[in-house]
Structures are given as C-alpha cells and as structure tokens.
Amino acid sequence: MTFRGWRLDKTDGVFNCALTDLDEAEMMEGDVTLDVQYSTINYKDGLAMTNAGPVVRRWPMVPGIDFAGTVTSSEHRDFKAGDAVVLNGWGVGEVHWGGLAEKARVRGDWLVPLPKAFTPAQAMTIGTAGYTAMLCVMKLQDHGVVPQDGDVLVTGAAGGVGSVAVAILASLGYRVRAATGRESDASYLKELGAAEIVPRAELSEKGRPLGKERWAGAVDAVGSHTLANVLAQTKYGGTVAACGLAQGADLPSTVMPFILRGVTLAGVDSVMCPKPVRLKAWQRLGECLPLSKLEAITSTVGLAEARRVAEDIMAGKVRGRVVVEISGNADASVS
Predict the structure, then answer these.
(1) Would you say 302 and 324 are in contact if contact means Cβ atoms under 8 Å apart?
(2) Pair 250, 204 in one domain
(3) 154 in a domain, yes or no?
(4) Taking a C-beta distance cutoff of 8 angstroms, is the pair 300, 325 a contact?
(5) In the chain, how many domains are there?
(6) Average pLDDT for residues 275-302, to the nearest whole number?
(7) In terms of Cα–Cα distance, which of 329, 313, 330 is closest to 321?
C-alpha cells in the first residue's frame, strides 16, 4: 500500500525534497495509525523543507511538525478507529515521520483528542504556532502579568506565533504592542487587536544593558538582539516568554534586567511539553481565541504547494497562517 507525501533525503551531502509515493511498510513505529486530513507549514517546516537549518535528524524524513486526522487503527488504550485527534511536536517531522503526507503512524501518548470547539481544519489554523502562542500567554499569566500592569509586546508579530499571540492577548484585555519590520503589516496587526506598532529596527540592533521601561510583559519569537532589548526594556517585575529564534539563537544580554528589575525570562517549549499542559492549552484556546480573526488571515493550500510555502516562509513572504489540506488534494492547490 502506498500513499502520497513529502519525502526529505540526504545522500552524500546532497539534499532532496520531493512529493512522492510512500510505502506503508516504511512507516515508523507507533501504536496509532491515522489518515491525515490537515497539516500546516511552520517556520521549522520551512527550515526542514529548504534544508536551511539542521532540523531533520533522521533520514529519510516526512516533514510536518503537526497534523489533524482520524484514527484508522489503534493499539493504544485511549484511542480507537474513528477518533479525531491532533498532534503537535514530539519530534514529529524531525526524528519521526510527520504530517505532510496522507497517512501517519505515531505513539498514542503524543496525541490529543480534537477539542470539541474546533474542526480539524480549524485545529490546523491554530496549529503548533497557535498552541505555542497560548503556552506563552499562559506563562505570562502564571507569572502574574495582568492587563492592568501595562502594555504587552509581541515580537515577530506578523508570523504564525505572533499573529495568534496578538489576537489572544487582545481578546483577554491586554494592550498589545506589535513589533514588525514591514509597514504594510500595520493594518493587519491592528485588525488582530494590536493597539500600537513597534518598528522592528527599534529592537533588532545591539542596545543598552538597561533601557526605558516600556512593557509589563512580552512574547518573543525572535531571540538574539531583539530578545536582549526586550528584556532591557521590560518593566520592574515583568516577564518575557521566549519561544523562538527567528533572528538567532544567541542572547547578547547582561544580568542587569534580572538583578536590578527582577525581570523573569520564561522559556516556552512546545515540542516536549507535558500532555496535561497541552490539554490545558487547547482548552484555553477554545475559550479565548477569537477564531474568526484567525481564519480571516489564514490561507489554504494543497499538499503539492507545501514546498513553495516553505520557501516563502524562509523568504519572509508569509504572514498569518497557512493550512495544508491533504485528504483528496495531494497533487493540487486548493486556494
């Protein structure tokens, strides 16, 4: 039995990414097999499909770090044929075949039941980016950041994580300042709920160890000098939730924000996040995410378009969310 999917190979240092027929006999170990209905393209997928970063650690690999699908067979106690499920992370698309294919086989412990609040397509409109954004917001709230404390900054605001973070924070009553490098994104971000736009250039270059206190908290998906400046400009007792490295993995900062202002740098990991926290994040998304706003900035493509979208993400041409419709659309563009 074969099925369509993207296959990444590297032989003698030569990288290849192709949409091809995959053999079920090659599928990796797992106790649940699924028909994948929808996936999405995240920044990490862009790195993998363009070979722009060392994301893939096992070859050959099917990319796609998340998916929504229907169980076709299961040896796991919590799932049975016909169940609708969602997967985010757990090394899928990196060390275990991922969601940019018509079928997947994974460990049942990695799966979350599809929340009743969402259809499979809506779950991938949220995707790993939206789930990560929710984890960041939860981290700010766990550290006591409330709307009355002042502005909250979102960096990389036009990207997948940033877009959802802006929408969630605004819906919860926070005054959101959204950092972006494109003036054309201003109206888009304000429609999501941003109150003010911060030019990316204000944060992306080397700055002072401490700057003027500007925000009570922040969600950062950028890293490097941007994160260093965000920390230096966070108010006394504020918290910064860090989840990405779009600018770089380095952190050219000092201890001064931490020891002079009591700032907290809270790391957010979506890949190995424990299942109880995942379930809480998806529950919270059903409660506070203005899905209509998110759907308005989401486009849908067929499986065949995934490589093009990955290249566009790496070129900075994609804002918002891109859903990949897989069932019945393996070789065609959808919209």
Answers:
(1) yes
(2) yes
(3) yes
(4) yes
(5) 2
(6) 92
(7) 313
